[in-house]
């Protein structure tokens, strides 16, 4: 299934030590809910388009679901913690296949070139399973293997928010432009933030996993972030947004109604993706990407873990 092959490569932001192993899912199915839901919006205006999914009905149309192995995707899940009482549940079953090939995922049917991408979500919680390796992702992605910018590497249009369940105070941000799976050659910039402590842990340009060329100036702005007392991606809902333009990407979060800029990246055009991409949300098991404070935190989840999404939206200029 071509969809699954794409998913395997998706969300590489995290695959720090993925190695060459590619595992093929034993079972997977793509589900598509038909027809516009009553709360789905596709509001075309002369100046801008807003697509919004509140995940409050089983009849949604902007995304399709991918359930690999025992993972499940359920919109319209009751959660009193969200304003409309309904959320999307991305549920990763116990002992899943590692890599995004085992993910529970939703994937926008359309692709977008630039725009503002937002999801209000609560990332996977593995506090009852210490040392578990589970990634929550909210990201854009497209890679068909072609090299339209002719820089010698396949174009990889990808912008990531990612969270590891074993260190829920840390946020991983990545902007990819190129990636070749065969040898893991890549071009991307990343920032890692401990939002609870209010610390920027790193801001780098990389051409291979494990690389880090520290960025500065307009590529590393703001230089500091505020501390958010008690911040955890997995115990409360937060808005996670980025605005992607031809000249930069601004990442921010909103917590308790307060907007916090995480990274206002402005750099050379060749470090910013210039090809349209899908918007995705997923949860998957990593066996190779541990947290910064525990190299052993890549255990398989022994019971199911879930990501909950209150709403998602994409706003484009045209
Ligand atoms: Ca390229
Ligand atoms: Ca909702």
What layout of secondary structure does this protein have?
Layout: H1 2-9, E1 28-31, E2 41-44, E3 49-53, E4 63-68, E5 72-78, E6 86-92, E7 104-108, E8 115-122, E9 134-142, E10 155-164, E11 170-180, E12 185-194, E13 199-206, E14 213-214, E15 238-244, E16 248-255, E17 258-266, E18 278-285, E19 305-316
The structure holds calcium ion (2 copies).
The site of one calcium ion has 6 residues, from loops.
Any descriptors?
318 residues; mainly beta; Jelly Rolls; ten-stranded antiparallel beta sheet; nine-stranded antiparallel beta sheet; globular; binds calcium ion
What does this structure look like?
This protein is mainly beta and 318 residues long. 3% of the residues lie in helices and 44% in strands. It is built from one helix and 19 strands. A hairpin with a 2-residue loop joins strand 16 and strand 17. One calcium ion binds next to loops.
How far apart are the first and last residues' alpha carbons, in Å?
Answer: 32 Å
CATH class: Mainly Beta
Number of domains: 1
Strands of the widest sheet, in order across it, are 1-4-7-18-9-10-11-12-13-14
In the CATH hierarchy, the architecture is Sandwich
In helices, the fraction of residues equals under 10%
* Count of DSSP-assigned helices: 1
Query: From the alpha-carbon coordinates, what is the Rg to the nearest angstrom?
Result: 18 Å
| Molecular shape | globular
User: How much strand?
Assistant: 35-45%
Give the biggest sheet: 10 strands, antiparallel
The number of distinct β-strands equals 19
